[in-house]
Amino acid sequence: MTAIPHRLPSAIPRLFLGVMLLALSGCAAFRSYNTELTETINMAASGNPGGAAAALEKRHSSSKRDLLYYLELGELQRLDGRFDASQDAWLAADKQVQAWEEAAKVNPEKILGAGASVLINDKVSPYEGHDFEKVMLTTRMALNHLAIGDWDTARVDIKRSHEREAVIENLRAKEFEKTEAEAKKRGAKTGFKELNGYPVQTIDNPEVNALRNSYQNAFSHYLSGFVYEALGEPSLAAAGYRQAIELRPDSPVLEEALSGLDQRIADMDEGKTDVLFVIESGSAPARVSQQFNLPIPYRDRLLIVPVSFPVLKEQDLGNMPSAIHMGGSTAAPTTVTSIDAMARRSLQEQMPGIMLRGIIRSTAKAVAQYQTAQQDDTGLATLAIAIGSIVTESADERAWRMLPAQVAVARARVPTGTPYLEADTPSGTQRIALEAKGRYQVIALRMLRGRLFIMPPPGPAGDKPEHEAATTPPSQAFLAAIR
How far apart, in whole angstroms, are the C-alpha atoms of residue 102 and residue 100? Predict the structure, then answer.
């Protein structure tokens, strides 16, 4: 149980009622992000990512376009093959994340403050992005640059990913200390395992606990190794591959990248293209608000107050192609990063702070309701606070839903000029017109609810050639419905 002061100032009921009425006048406290993005994902998966992007823009035409808007928009435009537009959206998102980074370096206390979320709910606070989303943003910006043949700028994005990880690590250490100290001061327990009815296994299981943290991932570091290798920087490439192995041990595809690096660098056969296939499936898990009853002892009573916390539901991670064939070579995709697991680890790390804010919020609500009841002859004010407490109590569901659930890689050396690849999917083999070019190449594929999308690169490392028409034009990102 949570210890709270024996008596709070009599102004608390009036203050709390005013805050709730202010919240009720807006929409931030009531927005169901899960509902909105489920519709967006369904439209994209039906083969219309452009329409989904237009619907997203229309929905935000009269509201502030925040970080999450630009994250989702960039992913939809990427699926639609509009790489320049996607990059513009992600640059807008990255600008906001960079501002967060600078604040985290200069004034971490400002970043760690809870603000209005203490009295209303976490949804009224500006969305700053989950830590793994911040890192995946620069990783996906690098993939965009690779798709248009700009390897040098992709290198810059990769370097910023590493720097971003360091900022996050430093800030989260401070946050943990602050939360622990505040919880101890208030006599509050912030262990989610003690929360009666919470589905602990969704965020506390062997796969989630095996992760080093929520924001570092093997794919981002493997991609950095590949880019450094393509640009002739073997020492940096080795460091990237080595970090990927540390984050995802016992993975032959990662270990081979490191062990075979010297041989690949020495092999100057210009007739071959080293192709990295990036294969993604599914979408990031939804956060769903779920209400729990929290007992709050106050004076001689035990007040039961509804408090909402985010829950991550179990989901289908999607189907990966079982094999990729190109130029006589066959490569089997190996999952190296589960964004689904990263999202669950992120919530696990956030729960102490979320619970502490929930306890403070529920305590304020309970005290306001109790004190008002003692002074309210008509019962109307008490009823207003009771209703306001219920309708404003909703957990924050915001998350970058258009991210894939998992990321796999496969690699093959194929004859340069090979005109197509084939992907073995659950509904048969899909042939994709795409020419192997240059000495190194990245080809990205995405399976989204039975539909295959491709983000084809136009040329070799270091070049910025004009887009070339293929049997399936690059501007038409989706290729086929898997029936």
Answer: 6
- This prediction has a pTM of 0.85
Distance in angstroms (rounded) separating the CA atoms of residues 167 and 182: 23
CA–CA distances in Å: residue 314 to residues 119, 200, 288: 30, 12, 11
Percent helix, strand, coil in the chain, to 5, is: 50, 20, 35
282 and 318 in contact (C-beta within 8 Å)?
A: yes
pLDDT per residue rounded down to tens, the chain (483 residues) = 444 444 444 444 444 444 444 444 445 555 667 788 888 999 999 999 999 999 999 888 766 789 999 999 999 999 999 999 999 999 999 999 999 999 888 877 665 655 444 555 667 788 999 999 999 999 999 999 998 889 999 999 999 999 999 999 998 888 888 888 888 887 777 788 878 889 999 999 999 999 999 999 999 999 999 999 999 999 999 999 999 999 999 999 999 999 999 999 888 777 999 999 999 999 999 999 998 887 777 667 777 777 889 999 888 888 899 999 999 999 999 999 999 999 999 999 999 988 888 888 777 776 666 666 566 555 544 444 454 555 556 789 999 999 999 999 999 999 999 999 999 988 789 999 989 999 999 999 999 988 889 987 544 443 443 333 333 333 334 333 332
Residue 65: burial class (beta carbons within 10 Å; 0-12, 13-18, 19+): middle
Closest among 434, 459, 436 to 445, alpha carbons compared: 434
What residue ranges do the domains of the chain occupy? 11-481
